[in-house]
Amino acid sequence: MPQTLDAVAVRGWCALALDALGRDREAIDAINVYPVADGDTGTNLYLTMESAAQAVEAVFAAYPEPPVYAGVPPTADVVRAMAHGALLGARGNSGTILAQLLRGMAEVVAAGEGDLALALDRAASAAYQAVAHPVEGTVLTVAAAAAKAAAGANGTPAAVAQAAYAGARDALDATPSQLAALGRAGVVDAGGRGLVTMLGALVQALSGEAPVVRREAPVPVPVDDCPAEAAGAGPAFEVIYLLEADDAAVDRLRARLDRLGESLVVVGGDGLWNVHVHVDDAGAAVEAGVEAGRPHRIRITHFEQPTPVEPPREQVQRAVVAVVPGEGLAGLCSEAGATTVLARPGEAPASGELVEAIRRAHAREVVLLPNDAELRHTAAAAVEQARAEGIRVALIPTRAAVQGIAALAVHAPERRFDEDVVAMTSAAGATRHAELAVAERQSWTMAGVCQAGDVLGLIDGDVVVIGQDLAGTARTVLDRMLAAGGELVTLVLSADAPPDLAAQLESHVGKAHLAVDTVVYEGGRQGVPLLIGVE
User: Which residues have a Cβ under 8 Å from the Cβ of 402 and sit 6 or more positions away?
Assistant: First the structure.
């Protein structure tokens, strides 16, 4: 009898696998020590399979029951939905590999070949190819053993599935002798354990009977008998996103991310990919995706380091998180009740830092003020991650610190969240921003050619004035901004600015622009000598 999986069997497998992973989730989480001991492999596998099962159910829901239609969609549609759903919902290193395993199986089944052993072989091969640096003793080893055992089996599809399950189970028991981290901990590979659970569900879907599951723990293997493993704490962040890009762009992305971090897995195809990597610079990983195509559903997780246990704090209802360019503004925003993230010159914060600040705010609702146009992708990634953790977050796309100050000034936590966000967004949007910078080299600008040492006046990000001294250029910038009207000028001075600059500019505004107020803040050591806001 040909080893086939039809639409009904695939649907049953998804449901049974989801149920089994739900039962085993905590146990799998508990043995998660590789590649990062973050205790979420079982949860990630469950969430990935949940997305696959939902996609399958959606296909069945589109086919009405008799007498209008048989109620059973084509098998190809079902397996493609399973693989696509897993791709969209893949979580973590293990979930991403699971998505590729299902994609490999779907390629064979959807093509009408119907050979379960061939499908398992394609799944294992696809998973190995998706991982930048395959490591034995992991789910990859278990998948390969399942495929090999299936290839040597004869009989019904259920018999082939039973052989694959047995082969995977034996390979799983051997993983502590292949990977030092597992041997030291005396556990089997968590991802491999999850795959064995999946294959057990496949046996039940095809035979109607659940396989007998061995529960005994493996014997710890002496460390000296285990292959050498790289030491060190590892990267700080896990970055995952969906990416719309062509094959050539993804090849370049793989090479770039491989240089940035480790545990790189890129799965998918046909223009849609799921990218997973562990890095220290989460922002750089996201930016690499932006250069390759269109990343979305960005999730960034900070690998927590052990810290002393502190008494739990009661959550506040609402908080503001603001990125600030200097210590002076950090103090100002903190006094106003905001949680701050310091952006030092040339050192933009990564998404993980923003997520940590959102967590540190310890609020049910958070307003994020990035205060820099260059942080738009980083901030969006942080918001996605925080929302995934159950925090209600609104991102106000402030492009400069003075817009953030304006937004914070009208923040009223007693208002409804949406109303507060609208008011803050309106205040930020009504604030034109400018800055004065010193040119480092000769270059072309919208205002002409500048030389090294020239003072540049930028309004809303564009160079509009090239001057020779800071005060004169600042006056010109202020006059241009106030020509369109304004009621309040905000000046944020760097610690390196001339000591009399603020007084000169206040005097100029008072004489040349009647009824316009000026407020001055000390920004500390920030990237530019002067920031200007006009409301």
Answer: 431, 433, 490, 492, 531, 532, 533
Structure tokens at 308: 């002393």
Report helix, strand or coil for 437.
strand
Q: How confident is the model at residue 416 (pLDDT cuts 50, 70, 90)?
A: very high
Query: Is the predicted pLDDT of residue 422 greater than 60, yes or no?
Result: yes
Distance in angstroms (rounded) separating the CA atoms of residues 397 and 370: 7
Spatial strand order of the sheet with 237-244 comes to 261-269, 272-279, 237-244, 294-302
CA distance 492 to 358: 25
* Whether the predicted pLDDT of 71 surpasses 80: no
CA distance 211 to 146: 15
Whether the upstream peptide bond of residue 67 has omega within 30° of 0, thus cis, is: yes
453 and 439 Cβ atoms separated by less than 8 Å:
yes
Rounded-to-integer distance, Cα 508 and Cα 479, Å: 9
CA 254, chain centre distance (Å):
16
Answer yes or no: is pLDDT of 305 > 80. Answer: no
> What confidence tens digit (pLDDT) does each residue in 87-124 have?
988 888 899 999 999 999 999 988 876 689 999 999 99
CA–CA dist 41, 28 (Å, integer): 6
Give whole-number Cα distances, 374 to 9, 371, 398, in Å. 49, 9, 10
Distance CA 436, CA 456 (A): 6
Answer whether residue 497 shows pLDDT above 80: yes
CA separation, residue 436 to residues 62, 68, 456, 492, 498 (Å): 60, 71, 6, 11, 13
- DSSP-based three-state secondary structure for 6: coil
State which amino acid sits at residue 115: D
89 within 8 A of 109, measured Cβ to Cβ: no
Reduced to 3 states, what is the DSSP secondary structure of residue 338? Answer: coil
- The lowest-confidence range among 241-255, 399-413, 471-485, 512-526 is 512-526
Mean per-residue pLDDT for 4-14? 88
Amino acid present at 111: A
Q: How far apart (Å, rounded) are the C-alpha atoms in residues 220 and 102?
A: 31
Whole-angstrom distance, CA of residue 25 vs CA of residue 520: 56
Which tokens hold the place of 414?
């007693």
Phi then psi for residue 101, to 5 deg, are -60, -45
Q: pLDDT: is 386 or 70 the higher one? A: 386
Label residue 376 exposed, middle or buried (CB < 10 Å: 0-12, 13-18, 19+). Answer: middle
